[in-house]
Amino acid sequence: MPELRVAPLACIAALLVLAPACYQGPGGASGSGDGSADGEDGGTADDDGAVDPFCEEETLPGGLTHFVRLTHRQYDNSVRDLLGVEGNPSDAFLGDTSVKGFSNNADQLAVTDRLARDYRRASEQIAAELLADPPRLSSLVVCDPGPDADACAQTFIESFGRRAFRRPLQDEEKAAFFAIYQAGDGKYETGSAFEQGIALVVEAFLQSPSFLYRVELSSPPADAELVALSGWEIASRLSYMMWNSTPDDALLAAAEAGELDSAEGIEEHARRLLADGRASDPVQDFHGQWLHVDRYPNIQKDPMVFPEYDPSAPASMATETMEFFRRTILDEGGSYADLMTSRTTYV
Question: Checking DSSP bridges between strand 68-69 and strand 213-214, what pairing results, if any?
Fold first, then answer.
């Protein structure tokens, strides 16, 4: 029975980024293998706790990668962590397509015309809320616009862009967003020219493919087909696996410092992310979709047959289920066996 314990995290982290973090580039050749694996090759831990050979660096295969669009849940978490947005803007979006009960199938995460309009409306609303909340807007700007507003805007574009795109901006991107900043004056009914320019820049970032998609564009060496993922790309994979959200400043700093270029560095930061409260989100997201917990509120009972039935029970059942998964997996380091055999619940 596979376990969800933190103990084998080195293997989990290695598999996550295919340490030394390689993938077959988009549309690239499939390599010499046929891409199949026998059931006998599946990894299991020996009774003595030894790590399966599949977790050894030289045996990790490369695989095709997609430019994966953020799920709606990841979008909500990301704008919350980037901008302090409250609530879930995606509640007004066209829903993500569910495939076999799960909403994160990369092949189905397309941006339709309807969803593009949803993104635009959400970015406009978020920008308007920023303008209506000067203290929050000021907290996002890491400089004083008074002496030189244009220089401060450029600083904001670089710092916020690094967080939104999960990597440093290229020179042409900086120039493009600065042009957007310059076009902001007069676009809104409130705010100074500087504030309106910043708001329009935020709008643009939130509609950019580099924010909405988890893009991996590292180049392969001339003599190889496999591509080593950059530290920035590994940071993005880690954060969206562990938190369902964008990397924090510490993880981006680790990517910049080269700390994610080794399995040891990846493990260190994966453990840090797992210790954070945000790690409960993907755990509950996965298990909630697995058990269709979102359907619990639709449970109804005939009051003539069940006169003591409490209509609030389905909501309590959903809360109980999610709390059970969170505590069993994250707080107690439990395994799937523990999930299936536990005699404990939470009310």
Answer: antiparallel
